[in-house]
Amino acid sequence: MNCGICAGSLGFRYRYHDVSWDDRFDGTMWRYWPLLPVDPPDGAVTLGEGGTPLLRARSFEEHRVYLKDETRNPTGSHKDRSLSVAITHAKAIGADVSVIVSTGSAGISNAALAARAGLRSVVVMTEGTPPERLYPMFGLGAALVEVKAPIDPIVHGVIDVCREQGLYLSTTSRNSNPYQAEGNKTIAFEIVEELGKAPDWVVVPVGGGGTVSGVWRGFRDCRALGLIDSVPRMIGVVPADYNALEVAFERGLNRWEDVLALPYDNLPPSILVKLAHSYPPDGMEALGTIRSSNGFFVSVTDEEALSAQEACGRREGLFVEPSTGACLAGTTRLMDSGQVHLEDVVVAIVSGSGYRETACTMDSRPLRKQSVSLEELSTSLTGF
Amino acid sequence: MNCGICAGSLGFRYRYHDVSWDDRFDGTMWRYWPLLPVDPPDGAVTLGEGGTPLLRARSFEEHRVYLKDETRNPTGSHKDRSLSVAITHAKAIGADVSVIVSTGSAGISNAALAARAGLRSVVVMTEGTPPERLYPMFGLGAALVEVKAPIDPIVHGVIDVCREQGLYLSTTSRNSNPYQAEGNKTIAFEIVEELGKAPDWVVVPVGGGGTVSGVWRGFRDCRALGLIDSVPRMIGVVPADYNALEVAFERGLNRWEDVLALPYDNLPPSILVKLAHSYPPDGMEALGTIRSSNGFFVSVTDEEALSAQEACGRREGLFVEPSTGACLAGTTRLMDSGQVHLEDVVVAIVSGSGYRETACTMDSRPLRKQSVSLEELSTSLTGF
After folding, report:
1. Do B157 and A374 touch (CB under 8 A)?
2. Does this model's pTM top 0.95?
């Protein structure tokens, strides 16, 4: 879905006068529909996305760090915000199928919201994705198509096929679908309403690059509306081995060809599968976001991410996926950088729940348990 | 936690004059704290439980059936409501550990909320629980203790040990902890606020028996407050092989000894593990609830539950656990009974998400997918 004239990316402009949030949809992101590219939401396809809690983090006691708990969305991640906009658009234009390339959260969101809308859903992925990760999509009625090819040719192939066959494409990159990109703005709207002001720092996991840019545009919308005076500095967290954007940022690269020339082919596998793009499809937009906001990139190892995931469970009470662990590891790195003042407000985006990734996490952090007889129970419990 | 004088079960009475909901906690169950057995909720231990959507079901088009989507709670089930009350109480009385007997949702809730409160959590379960079901508890920092004994002696053993050692016990049965039992009332409060009246029928999965009774007490509270004129008929759904309560109801049994005399030992395993109690610990209370409300029990097979789980995914967009499938199968049975009028409002409690049960469901309903080459992609997508 690109410009029919120049083939460039598509975005949206909004009129900012006379915008007011719609109280009828309190507790969901549809409260903010006047700044989404859809008609008034009587036709919204929704399972009640958004309205997620902003929890004070226990892990950084002296600092004001908040966790935006996006695991509370219908299928356990912020992708529900994007897909509810996309499927609402799909339904409005009379589509009867929604195709997406995804092996992760976006595929589950597509399956759930398409089911809700009465559309068929098709999820296309590369070979070898663990069946436990695919299963929820299947359980939500999606047809699963595994392709024996690397992910990039699949993404381009699916764009071509959908265009030829007139199938609605919901892949969460701007070139595939610009509508879905607007859903992430509502994360910023909710944070501003909850805090009554803009945070000073927002830490976002960067995979394809669309989330960090969407959240940033949400804060800019809030400034345009006069709801906030300042905007936060955006911190993008990438996997250590998949840090093309970090390198591009540090080297001041301005052209996508220069990013593509960086040596990021044939990288080792990472447990941070949802962030592990060699060349993130919305990478240029993400680079622009980090620069405009006066932020920076942080890269974290799989081990750091897993440790942060573990700490988040034990200290915050949130069972998150490894890729969300990466964001929290990045937050620790930000706090350790000495750049955050004591009065600063920091928000970390807790993007996805761990319940959908149990099998993957277990491989890296095996279960431990005691096994006792009934007679030994008393002695066993004495230890706690 | 029983009466120190007569050893009987404990409950709570409330004053119903001057009760008003607390708008500061909108969007969570803590809005209703004046009818919970805790102090004003500045000390509430919460991850933002409750405030779950009431979705119009697509599956019963001509009838007004709603799904109360409890999968939207912090750990994916309604048990978070019970455990947030229990852990708030535990913290208020100075406990530093919360022990629970559970192999399912309540164990995850205990782990998450104890972590949030800074308490240690211990989950005790019977041998042989699949590691995928235990893993989230481990990921949330719980110590796991597997006991080589059937579940009933474990429950009683843990009650004794906790009493001896002064450990806080959070098991979700009234005899173990009467505080947690109050959390389920808030499901009814939310339904009444959303509908502006009482539904005519409420369908609830019955495992231990506490949920159906808690929801029922919530509706009675609403009537006592003058918020509703009538109360719903409560339908309890039990597994076909574990239907002692259904039989007790139909035979008019009034004493627990008579229920215990029914032949429900050594039953075959069921995929409805969260409902499969031979003799539900809160069974007498559940029996009383169904009778008082002029409702009845429905029993469903594993196969019916799995089919309803599948239909819920494909038609409603909700990926639920098999035990929640049982509730939806029971709802279909109710609708087919001819007792529901066209103008009646029916609410089914969608109690638990399927993301925590992926491995178990996969065994019963294997994944299906296509596998194609890049060249075959176009032909493959033509089929949709």
Report:
1. yes
2. yes
